[in-house]
Amino acid sequence: MRKAWIVAGAALGAGLSFVMVLVVGVYLVAGNLAGGTGGGPVALAKGSVPAAYQKLVQEWGNLCDAINPALLAAQLYQESGFNPQAQSHAAAQGIAQFIPGTWATHGIDANGDGTRDVWDPEDAIPSAASYDCDLAKYVKSAPGDPTENMLAAYNAGPDAVIRYGGVPPYTETQNYVQRITTLAESFAAPVTRVDPSEQAAAAISYAQEKLGTPYLWGGNGTADHGGRFDCSGLTKAAYETVGVELPRVANDQYNAGPHPRRDELMPGDLVFFSDDLTNSRAIRHVGIYVGGGYMINAPRPGAVIRFDPIDTPDYFGATRVTEDGAKALPTSV
Q: What's the pTM value of the predicted model, to 2 decimals?
């Protein structure tokens, strides 16, 4: 269990003033950090892909120009949440959710063990990358962005992309393309400083009003929960006040935007903690950063919502929540 630090009464009062200064600073700094995201090679964000699959995703994500490791990771997360045993009602199977007919024609024996196994990530992840690249080749004559056309072909079929000369006018397909390209940003290591969130100040303000509220496992802050929260219930409710719908659990909230480094943290960033620093799916705690090395969080049963330091051995990383990033997350993984 994480060590907790309880703020004394006098320090708490000083802390609230400190927070308000930092919250105002979010908007002042925002104007100075606006800019492009930059280019360069795509590397995976720390721990965004489970360690068991990171090498495969990084290697096969560079198979062709239409994909990159972050995009491949976004597809795998969207399809299965990196669960190699996932199976859908439509008979899609494995970490990449191939249906049997597609696997029969596009599955490859990537690990050379003599078997094309849809349940084996060493075959399924390379097969997903290979399938993406095959689709990209098929629709390469279509005008528009090759990656978006590839994703559209994945969702609607390559013939539709060719027929419409790019992403077809299907709402489902257009949403899929937008969702995956946005989600890829949360799996990519940023190459420049990450722009601040405009919703951060209000989220902090909401969490600050809840200081002293007793913790409740599974608590959403609703009347039937006595207005109490657990860690991810608090962060979800805080961002809901500004119209950003986060997933319910902490390890999915990690994918709601890009990941600033520790020295780039700003008030309003979500900060995460885990006993496995190589795997975002193992994240077990989240708080809202307020500056100065502290967060507001609902720490554990028997405690209250309070300020705690973030610089502990189980600090995993941070996410700068974006509205588009939150919308891109799958409803269930």
A: 0.85
